[in-house]
Design a protein that fits this description.
Elements: E1 6-11, H1 13-30, E2 37-41, H2 46-55, E3 61-69, E4 80-84, E5 94-102, H3 106-116, E6 122-130, E7 143-147, E8 153-154, E9 170-173, H4 175-178
Parallel strand pairs: 2-3, 2-5, 5-6, 6-7
Antiparallel strand pairs: 1-9, 3-4, 8-9
Bound molecules: inosinic acid and magnesium ion (MG).
Length: 179
Amino acid sequence: MLEQDMTQILYTSDQIATRVAELAEQISRDYADTPPLVVGILRGSIVFLSDLIREIDLPIDLDFMSASSYGSTTSSSGAVNIKLDLSQDIRGRHVLLVEDILDSGNTLSKLIPELKAREPASLKLCVLLDKPDRRVRPVTVDYLGFSIPDSFVVGYGMDFAQRYRNLPYIGVLKPAIYE
Ligand code: IMP
Ligand code: MG
């Protein structure tokens, strides 16, 4: 039913699971002595996050935040709109931010300095997908699932107009749907 809205399945659930397990293994190794506070950025990261944390073999903490950038057309204030903030102080914590997809970089390039100002012991970024061709502002990714070409993708947490988040795979949406 939903699959007919896709031009292509970019990654199957098996392919995603394999990559997520690899990322989790790397994270488990890197944070062995410093279990992280894993911060999911709502809402797109939730499917990725829930698979990822179940493969991390460490006593992690979990928190969430939700943010949106004002976009490149408005203001030069550099402000990020935090719609839901963390429920705790991150000073001295090892924070691992988890996001679904890095596109222009507008949101994260503003959110990361904001979080660093709270003086965490460390702050790293884990993203499932990166669209490097779309980057406007530089963002350093520490753990990356897949680098993809510039196309609009949905599924595995990612939406178009709040739909398709529940697809178990990552698909390319038919342009006719959003044009
Ligand atoms: P940006 O990096 O600030 O441009 O914004 C990244 C956010 O835009 C992501 O967290 C997604 O919510 C959304 N986004 C960007 N590209 C896509 C896509 O292909 N599908 C679904 N959401 C996307
Ligand atoms: Mg998002």
